[in-house]
Amino acid sequence: MTVKIRQLKGVIVTMPTITDQMKQQAEPLWQASFNHPFIKELSTGQLPMEEFRYYLKQDRYYLQNFSTLHGKIADQIKDQSIKKFLYAGATGLNDSEKDVRTEFFQQLAITPAEIRQTPMAPNAYNYVSHMYHELYVGSPRRACAALLPCYWLYNDLGKQLINNGSPVKIYQEFIETYDSPEFTEATNTMISIVDQLGESAEPDEQKAMVTAFVRSSYYELHFWEMAYEEQKW
């Protein structure tokens, strides 16, 4: 656990950071993600390819908005180092992830026409709407907290799955993307940013940040279910 260390009258006290609190509260949702049939079958190679294709098409909608939100949050942030990271996220911070996605679309023959004919599914729509809500009705702090599970959960999934991998080449490449040094570095930076923003926030704002994180974790869990069921309106 990452802790903040304070010294009070000669006694060193360790205190959990806000991201520790976030992860602790979201733990049941994360464990459900790790144990979801979509993830289990992706790892064993038993996941039907049509379900993975559906996931990729919905994730494309999500990632477009995820990238846009980085820039919109950066516009409202004063700290220059945070702005730099977020603007990089808006313009291609995780190029390796995007490159892999492009290869996946080519391998699976997902065409622009097919993408246009596939509407955003309810959970993807709700997840994106939640993130915009956290920025425009909430604050940049809450919006950053809402973005964090997409980094952190996927990085943890990559680290958990990499040892066994997957016998299906495209699933193995998916796993490797999220265990990569580049993605791990981006994840750690985003965790630090949220901790920094949380440290300077008022208690009510800190609670709202934790809530935003937990809600995003809920939508992450249901993203697997959305793809597994090929959810429609």
UniProtKB/TrEMBL annotation:
Enzyme Commission numbers on file: 3.5.99.2
Tagged with keyword Chaperone: no
Protein name: Aminopyrimidine aminohydrolase
Known function: Catalyzes an amino-pyrimidine hydrolysis reaction at the C5' of the pyrimidine moiety of thiamine compounds, a reaction that is part of a thiamine salvage pathway.
Assembly and interaction partners: Homotetramer.
Tagged with keyword Cell membrane: no
Domain of life of the organism encoding this protein: Bacteria
Membrane-spanning segments: none
InterPro entries per the UniProt record, alphabetical: Haem_Oase-like_multi-hlx, Thiaminase-2/PQQC, Thiaminase_II, Thiamine_Salvage_TenA
Pathways involved: Cofactor biosynthesis; thiamine diphosphate biosynthesis
Entry similarity comment: Belongs to the TenA family.
Keywords: Hydrolase, Thiamine biosynthesis
Coiled-coil region: none
Reaction(s) the record says it catalyses: thiamine + H2O = 5-(2-hydroxyethyl)-4-methylthiazole + 4-amino-5-hydroxymethyl-2-methylpyrimidine + H(+); 4-amino-5-aminomethyl-2-methylpyrimidine + H2O = 4-amino-5-hydroxymethyl-2-methylpyrimidine + NH4(+)
